[in-house]
Amino acid sequence: GEHMAGGAAGAPGIGPNGEKNSAGVMMGGGIVTTSGNTADTKNDGKRDFARVLELYAEMIKVEEMAKRGGSSHHRSGSSGGNGKRPPPPPPGSDSKRRRPTPTGSTPSKPKITGKPIIVVPNAMTSPITVLNAIDFFKDATYVPRDIAIKKGARKVPSVTFKRRMPSRMGGHEYEYEIIDNPITRLKSSADWSRIVAVIAQGAPWQFKGWKYSAPVDVFGRSFGFYVGMDDSPLPKDVTTWNVKIGRLNRDRRGLDNVTFANFWNGLDQWMSVHKKEYFPTDET
After folding, report:
1. pTM of the predicted model, to two decimals?
2. What is the mean pLDDT of residues 51-65?
3. If we measure between CA atoms, which residue out of 226, 235, 178 comes closest to residue 203?
4. How many CB atoms sit inside 10 A of residue 185's CB?
């Protein structure tokens, strides 16, 4: 390969035949002298020496460019212009879950497409049904079934009412929907996810045919509440379910407000943890 020896101007060199010159530079395996006995030798030596200086300057320039390029590449990391992809994130990394959002935007939250639903029992023996649900959940008054019918209440697929959250929880007003037959009323998974509370009758067959028919699933996905008369025994199944207990009396209305408050305090707290998408944000 090509190499340089005695490359400094004015340094002694050795000619092709072993003779020494006053100054010489080795190129391509030979010595090019910068002084000699003939004009041609002098001219050739000057040209060769100039060429050596050009090559040396180019070599320095290439080295400096290489150094700058290397440091730039080092700063840019493995995602530089070498055509290689960056290494994958280590196992357990949350890089997939944390993706940058466009400038000036905020992460989108799930949108509400329907009213929160309260499911009541579809049974005449239940203290709370669609017939008297509005009286209790809106007006904190228990109206027995027979009296509700005398007052003109009729069986309908669903009823709705509005209620305002306590100020400590934002004070937002919601419109709730009350139904007693979710199998026919709810078609999609999104519909079923709107259920926020289930009033338990006391028997597992209440949930037959539901999307989630096991009581542990029903009350794991919604706020469970049992309403019974204060003179009736508590059903055995209810004692094993994740539900709160409320009591009513046919004649004394004093228990109405207690049970009413017990239900709404429990549901408000449950929604604040499990149904945060129903709570408006500061941006809305």
Report:
1. 0.61
2. 70
3. 235
4. 14
Contact between residue 260 and residue 227 where contact means Cβ atoms under 8 Å apart: no
Q: What is the pLDDT of residues 3-18, one digit of tens each?
A: 444 444 444 444 444 4
Our measurement of the distance from residue 252's CA atom to the centroid of its chain's CA atoms, rounded to an integer in Å, reads 50
Long-range contacts of 205-214 (CB under 8 A, 24+ apart): 206/121, 206/122, 206/123, 209/183, 210/182, 210/183, 211/182, 211/186
CB contact set of 234 (below 8 Å; sequence gap of 6+): 226, 228, 245
Pairing state between β 30-33 and 24-27:
antiparallel
Digit-coded pLDDT (tens) for 91-112: 554 444 545 444 444 445 455 6
